[in-house]
Every structure is written in structure tokens, then in C-alpha cells.
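so my prof wants the structure for this chain in the C-alpha cells format not the other one, which i didnt know existed until like an hour ago. anyway here's the sequence
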Amino acid sequence: MSQVFKALSDPTRRRVLQLLRQGPMSAGELSDQFDVSKPTMSAHFAVLKEADLVHAEKAGKSIIYHLKLSVLEEALLGFVHSFGVGEPAPGAGPRPETEPKPKTETT
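here's what i got, hopefully its the right format
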């Protein structure tokens, strides 16, 4: 999970993932979206691959990147669950009711 968060810590890599949500793109197409050198982009791609957030596929002379959204979802859910989100806090007692109880008539 730490590799995923390392990959997400950089705004360029987050933007690459956002672009890949629209569909697979070549390394060149992705690089054209940023004002950085190709070696810098290659380093970003390597971090994303190491975190298993993207899949790289060779197509002739190009490399096509695909987003692995399921890996991102699993990492984020694992992170959220590690904090017990959705569960009552220890020692908090029962959760308050969300709807008031109907009033009963006493005569």
C-alpha cells in the first residue's frame, strides 16, 4: 500500500492517472501533456508501474499505458478500513439512532 501512496504523492503522477481514466494512452501522448523532460516522465511511469497502478503494453515502437483502477480502489479501501471507518469507535457505545422513535400515546 505504501508504494501506491508514494505514487499518489506527486501531482504529475496523479494527473497521469486522471488522464488514463479516459482510456489507454501512449507514453508520448501522456508526455505531451506535461512540461517536463522525457526522462522525468519515464521516472514517473516507473513509479506508477512499481505501484502496479498502470499496465504498460508495447505496441510497435510505442508504449501504451492502461490504468489499473482496481489496484487504486483496493489500496484506498484498505487505507480507509485501517482506520475503522464505518465501524463504531472503541468505547463509543452504541450508535445513536438516526430516526426518532415514534411517540406512544399514554392515557
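also thought this was worth mentioning. Residues 56 and 65 are 5 Å apart (CA to CA).
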